[in-house]
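Many introductory courses stop at the sequence. We go one step further.
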Amino acid sequence: MKNRTDPQPFQRLNKNHSITVEEPPVDLARRFFVVSSVLAGGGLALGFKLPAAAQAATADSAADAGIELDAWVAVRPDDTCVIRFARAEMGQGTRTGLAQLIAEELDCDWDKVTTEMVSPQANLARKGVWGQMLTVGSFGIRFSHDRVRRGGAAARAMLLQAAANEWGVAVGELSVQKGLIRHAASNRQTSYGKVALAASRLTPPDPKTLKLKDPADWKIAGQPLKRLDTAPKLNGSKIYAVDVALPGMLTASIKACPVFGGTLLRFDDAAAMKSPGVKKVVRVGNDAYAVIADTWWQAKSALEKVRAE
């Protein structure tokens, strides 16, 4: 089973039953392009160049949108770490596993971690910074663990350097645990959120030059932690494709020829058209037909009333 999210043109079904082919919009607002609010809220943006249009975009608030660290991490004013990636959660724990890998190298507080799935539009606008948007089996972690770990390590390096610069000490004198940076010699302490703005002014390190942690020292990655995707699925807050509702949106339910290579000769839609919410029954190609209705259930129910040959 695969989940592809490559940016492609999509079709919009209109109220007049016509189909409009549209290019995917490049969404520059809110969560993915929040540079202005990042700077205002004391945040950090590192690791890649943003388009000019993105630099002018703002979010409703830094607390809501998150403050960008790099492509993989954003920090909110309350030190919550928003971890982002292009791999979809399909039941195998990919989202939690990748978040653990990033959080491990970042040295943040796991209790303050939340995740976001990036959009194909954002990945396209940023020249594929998140890599291929493909999830199948163990592919998500096997082929992206090194990339995401280095993203977390790069953010950590800049945050520590910012704190060292502020206190006038060497980075090697600092320690960090659960997002809190400490200087033992002077008994000073700060948090990621407080040094994020200063860190954003530093030159990002080359991720390839960073030394990653030895798995033997892992405290978050590889540990049997509670999965991040479980609670939203149980409490009803998770938004699925079937939950999406747009103004004037219609739904189509389709049925293809049950025999491979068969052709649809004709169909009788009289009974289906009498069903509640049904707008139209249309031929799809030369081997299928579909019912267009106000809701999926209305379309699906009416589909069974179509007599096809």
